[in-house]
Amino acid sequence: MTMGAGGLATRVVVGLALAVAALAGVTLGGWAFDLFVAAGVVLVFREWGALHGLAEAWQRAGLLVLLAVSAAAHIGRADLALGLLAVGATAVLLVARPPGASGGGRFATAGLLYAGLPAIALIWLRQQAGGFQLVVWTMAIVWATDTFAYFAGRALGGPKLWPSVSPNKTWAGLGGGVAAAAAASAALGAGFGWTLALPVLGLLGAALAVAAQGGDLFESHLKRRAGVKDSGTLLPGHGGVMDRVDGLVPVACLVALGVRCG
Question: pTM for this one?
């Protein structure tokens, strides 16, 4: 995609505004952060519903499930939140698509998991000791990956990463994003006083950058399947909310899983 100076400026300004809003929410924590995440979940699921042509009734049912999940996570019950998500996703699948019938039940269920799991992960991470640092580190890795993959790809060009899914992504862009994420991970980890060695932090950042790009490619596949360029039009220069959090979805889940099992 070729973007003029005006389009690039809009992209940068909106991106900075989103970053400031996200960092403000992370800094405040509590209600502010959890409401920020819940609002994002609602917007992501609505865009998912539009991409898959979900009936309005099932979109509303899904939103109720996600709000209940967010509320459970807010009160510190991640286990309850996961249980509600599992029950809600299963119920939607069974009711919206009975065995042998056609319909969008499986897409509604997939959308609930796509929106709900990273929401639980982010809220839970912020509630941990050192939660501010964990969430900032998680977001910074995704931002570094997205930003440097974009500019490295534009500057260097070269072979395409997966042209049938995302014709603008290149191997050079992936390399730039991975390198930037590794550097951001090491720098932030050292700044936060974490005890992990810098090479380990760098490797973690690099691995999560690959996951972030995988999330980006998955969303590109969904858009190509739906025949649209962006998941929405809410964010000038970026598209929809899904277009901005596609990399955060897998990374947030992986970081939460790592912290929980670590």
Answer: 0.92
